[in-house]
Predict the structure.
Amino acid sequence: MRYDQNVKLGVLGGGQLGRMLIQSAIDFNIDISILDPDENAPCKNVASKFEVGKLTDFDSVYQFGKQMDVITIEIENVNTAALKQLVKEGKKVFPQPEVIELIQDKRLQKQFYQRHNIPTAEFILTEGKDDIKNHLSFLPAFNKLGKEGYDGRGVLKLSHEGDIENAFEAPGLLEKSIDFEKELSVIVARNEDGNIVSFPAVELSFHPEANLVEFLFSPANVSLDIEEKAEKVALDVIQKLDMIGILAVEMFLTKNGEILVNEIAPRPHNSGHQSIESNITSQYEQHLRSILNLPLGSTKIKSPSAMVNLLGEEGYSGDAKYVGIEETLAMEGVHIHLYGKKITKPYRKMGHVTIVDENLDILKKKARIVKDTLKIIS
């Protein structure tokens, strides 16, 4: 497929990622239809067409997809059987259903890395608490649910035997705890012609309670050797998946300079939000380019940047109120992105702020000020 402004493009999921994808598609005169179970999803008022339907239901996904030329996702928890049927009927589905299926299950994901010699932390597949008790010598480790873990949920650190009572009573895995120096992410994109590009590595800092990205810095403060190593690993992953679309590859940089793949996401990702302001091509535009088989855009950094996730404040649930907007907007280089969510709750992703500045120390200082100033309460 080449550029066609009349292409019928459908997205499974109507959250903030879909919302920002729509904002990018407007520049191409491309209309996007959305399927989401929430009648008040962030995309409701900006999509060309918005349908309410369950993303894991075969008929809902199939009937929605039949109306489209190209189908993509902004969340992995979708019905892949329906997507496979749509492919058989000539619809283009990117990322491919088989890739989505693999990434829906962290157990399959880790086994894929192992089979394809992709560096990753040592792991053991487990069936539940009793099984974990047979591997005490493997602790400390992270217990991860095989399926349905998302946005920090479904991950639990087990430091010693006493922690096992809190482990998941479901198929999952134990992943060896890594003594890492930094957490990095590299986003790569690939189109149907097989052209591939990567974004420069970014550095992530996670919220200690929510296990969500709290700050991001672009580019990552690493050596050229580490940057090239991380990029090579990310490119290797998307090629071995034979995937079309955009892929975020989250990694650990160990203290001895190793790059280990943690998890991957076959869609626009939290670790690429800053690209809207700070890269020549945003991750959202790149995703559109890749799934429509258009030439991929330059990923060069226009300016160093920081990204601050705006999470709902602890202790507040209800209609969202934003405190500190004016003070934040008064800062030079600040760009606010709110996600259109009416209801806030603790640690819910409500928006993000990108800050651009040539000085890394100033970026870090401004990021902390933004975090302390802009609050979402009820």
About this structure: Residues 65 and 115 are 33 Å apart (CA to CA). The chain has three domains: 9-93, 122-176, 180-377. The chain has a mean pLDDT of 94. The longest strand covers residues 180-190.
